[in-house]
Design brief:
The structure holds two protein chains of two kinds. Chain A is of the alpha+beta class. Helix content of chain A is 20%, strand content 35%. The longest helix of chain A is centred in the middle third of the chain and has 12 residues. Chain B is globular. The chains are: A alpha+beta, B alpha+beta.
């Protein structure tokens, strides 16, 4: 079992630890609900050092990354982040990831921890014909996420870099509290915030500084999932996966079929044939909480299943994402979710559970 | 250290029973509420439902997950704690004060299949 550099800090701060993607990670400190609220109202600090980082450099780096992922990195400038997905030839998802573009010849792919080894193997297996160097830097980087409306103020107190120059999905390299980090204005919560990459000792030092600040609440992976869900962001293994393609998941904005990439033909064929299933947002109309894999029923038969569901800690509203037959995916359609012995009414709604607060 | 009360009977699945004449008052233990974390929802079935010893009758849910409730005795549900239905976090505050359901006990012999406080303490280690 791997430990992040902050493991001892988590224990000292009374985290409940769980195994996640081969790491011992904090699921919560004081409780998921309080931590969720802290990120929506103030500022939360997450250890996300388990995330994988894969560097791709070389003359053909842009062409190679564009061949690997659905989005088009060629049109982006330096110091921009781009969301994309790596697909199998059949259009199923290998992983979704953030691409950090340092230059046309240097990219950093930030991938899901649970998929990192598989991703690295996938990427190296497809390098033939490209002049690139591929390096797994996951063991060299630790990562923090500082998220919430007070995040910018907190971070600005520790750096001379003008954070107003860093807009949503920009990144830069600059010193915080005397040490150098890669910092992007991004996150997985729907709030303004920052993802901060550095060496293990530098991240440990920064973490220790940040938790001394009264506005900062320590947050675990538990609220990371409720926050990303409320912000309607997909999670690999739930809303996307080897058997759910990005169009079914509603991620067409990150798919650029005007250029070539692995899985493009399969996606185009699926689109032309008409999508048979879609990920929809559901609002429960009766008391209950829909959990992953609960069956969804309409007209007397099962038409899909829940992929993620929660009662949102801040609002008490019970929402879910479900993968269902497209015929039932229009807004307003009523379905039944099987919850233990009961069938609970739910309604298809838009995915905007929350107004995102990115700094443009 | 989780609280275990001396005068109760316990199921290995972390429910407690207090017998009051032929009424069994049922809740979850302090250990159970602590392991679950903040409880946000309870599903307790309805008055009139029959529960069976060691059969599932509902669930307590934290933000993260649903955890099945197992009936420690057989009988008809005669009361549901509506206060807990409306404020599930009461179970986190005091898991023994805030019972979940009351069941009309059919067979007092079933109580022998449950743990006493000492055995339950041992189970928790």
């Amino acid at each position: 079992m791997k430990k992040t550099v902050l493991y001892e800090e988590h224990l000292r701060n009374k985290a409940k630890m769980v195994e996640f993607a081969g790491f011992m990670m904090p699921i919560e400190y004081q409780g998921i609900a309080a931590e969720h609220r802290a990120v929506r109202e103030k500022c939360g600090l997450f250890d996300v050092s388990h995330m994988g980082e894969i560097k791709i450099a070389g003359k053909d780096a842009t062409r190679f990354v564009n061949y690997l992922i659905t989005n088009d990195v060629a049109g982006y400038g330096e110091n921009k982040m781009i969301y994309g997905l790596m697909l199998k030839e059949d259009g199923g998802v290998v992983d979704d990831l953030m691409v950090y573009k340092f230059s046309d010849e240097h990219y950093l792919l930030v991938v899901n921890a649970a998929n990192k080894d598989k991703d690295y193997e996938w990427i190296t297996g497809r390098r033939e014909g490209f002049d690139v160097a591929i390096e797994d830097l996951s063991d060299d980087y630790s990562q923090l996420a500082l998220q919430g409306p007070l995040a910018a103020g907190v971070l600005q107190g520790l750096t001379e870099y003008r954070l107003e120059n860093l807009k949503a999905f920009d990144f830069d390299v600059f010193p915080i509290a005397g040490r150098e980090f890669v910092v992007s204005r991004s996150g997985y919560t729907g709030e303004d915030g920052f993802e901060i990459y550095g060496s293990h000792p530098d991240i440990l030092a920064l973490f220790s500084r940040l938790i001394e600040i009264p506005e900062v609440t320590l947050c675990g992976l538990g609220c990371r999932d409720t926050l990303r869900f409320e912000a309607a962001m997909p999670l690999y293994g739930h809303e996307i996966g080897p058997d759910i393609n990005p169009l079914e998941a509603g991620l067409g904005f990150a798919v650029k079929t005007s250029k070539d990439f692995i899985g493009r033909e399969a996606l185009l064929a699926a689109k032309n044939a008409g999508l048979k299933r879609k990920i929809v947002a559901l609002e429960l109309l009766e008391r209950g909480i829909a959990r992953a894999d609960y069956p969804i029923e309409a007209e007397g038969r099962v038409i899909g299943r829940v992929t993620t569901g929660y009662m949102i800690p801040t609002t008490g509203k019970a929402y879910a994402f479900g993968l269902i037959e497209s015929a039932y995916s229009d807004i307003g359609v009523e379905v039944l979710i099987h919850i233990r012995k009961n069938k609970i009414k739910a309604k298809v709604r838009n995915k905007k559970f929350l107004e995102k607060k990115y700094i443009k | 250290m989780s609280k275990v009360l001396d005068n109760l009977k316990y199921a290995e699945s972390h429910e407690w029973v207090r017998v009051d004449g032929n009424t069994a008052v049922i809740g979850i233990t302090d250990y159970a509420q602590e392991s679950l974390g903040s409880i946000v929802y309870v599903d307790l079935g309805a008055v009139g439902d029959r529960v069976e010893q060691f059969g599932e009758f509902g669930a307590v849910e934290s933000v993260k997950a649903a955890s099945d409730l197992i009936a420690p005795v057989t009988g008809k549900i005669i009361a549901i704690n509506e206060e807990v239905v409306d404020n599930p976090e009461l179970v986190n505050e005091d898991a023994y004060e805030n019972w979940l359901i009351k069941v009309e006990l059919e067979d007092t012999g079933e109580l022998d299949k449950l743990l006493d406080a000492a055995a339950y303490r041992e189970l928790l280690g």
